[in-house]
Design brief:
mainly alpha, two-stranded antiparallel sheet, globular, single chain, 8 helices
Length: 237
């Protein structure tokens, strides 16, 4: 919590002293329209992740075992943890620094730089520095492309809220099925699945890693064009 508070203070200072703006340019104040963006992003990503889990279950013939006792207090703790972590990452990678970069070097370069930093960050956060080059490149590619889509979402909506909904929806829903630290396998445990080899393994994992972000990018552009809930930035670079 202290770390999040420090990030908020630093974000305010960057915007105030570099761009002469207040924190509202990040779209973080929860006005009704922005809360609606957040819930649209959250619901969309939860449904998309459920679809991806169903596809993986079908393709790999995954057998799941539901826990006999579901700890709802643990689920709530997981939700609070992931909303804090998602907000922290979004303010760092898609907050004041990204806003300043967009003003200084243009949206295209700024979004690409944000995406690259987000991808490299996950190499460290996943503890992969001792891994081989191929897994590291894969993580940078997949998480970097996700970061690109969420940074693009921030730019187009003038708010962190839609991207925050995406971020929280993905991280939280996945804890129901997959093991992760500090919360994982909260409702289901994977018992068995079919192992893929060679090109089938590569194709499946690339699809699993990139397809959700591709679908999300299409969805964002659809929202921008079709509804007043999402207002695009008129000053594109």
């Amino acid at each position: 919590m202290l770390g999040l508070l420090i990030i908020i203070v630093i974000s305010w200072a960057l915007l105030r002293f570099i761009e002469k703006k207040n924190s509202d340019v990040l779209g973080i104040i929860p006005y009704p329209n922005r809360l609606l963006q957040f819930f649209i992003g959250l619901v969309f990503m939860v449904l998309l992740c459920l679809l991806m889990v169903a596809a993986e279950t079908y393709i790999l013939d995954v057998e799941w075992k539901q826990k006999e006792t579901v700890d709802y207090s643990l689920i709530f703790q997981s939700f609070i943890y992931h909303i804090r972590s998602a907000l922290t990452e979004d303010l760092v990678f898609r907050g004041a620094i990204l806003y300043v970069l967009i003003q200084r070097i243009g949206s295209k370069k700024a979004i690409l730089l944000s995406a690259l930093c987000f991808g490299v960050y996950h190499v460290f956060s996943y503890g992969m520095m001792g891994e081989r080059l191929i897994p590291i490149i894969y993580v940078i590619l997949v998480t970097g492309f996700t970061g690109y889509v969420w940074a693009y979402t921030f730019y187009k909506t003038n708010s962190v809220m839609l991207g925050l909904g995406f971020h929280l929806g993905y991280n939280f829903l996945m804890t129901f099925f997959y093991e992760s630290y500090p919360y994982g396998g909260l409702i289901f445990t994977e018992v068995s699945k079919t192992s893929l080899q060679d090109w089938n393994w590569i194709f499946f994992n690339l699809s699993k890693g990139l397809l959700p972000s591709i679908i999300t990018l299409v969805f964002v552009n659809y929202l921008i064009k079709s509804t007043a809930v999402i207002k695009s930035n008129s000053n594109q670079s």
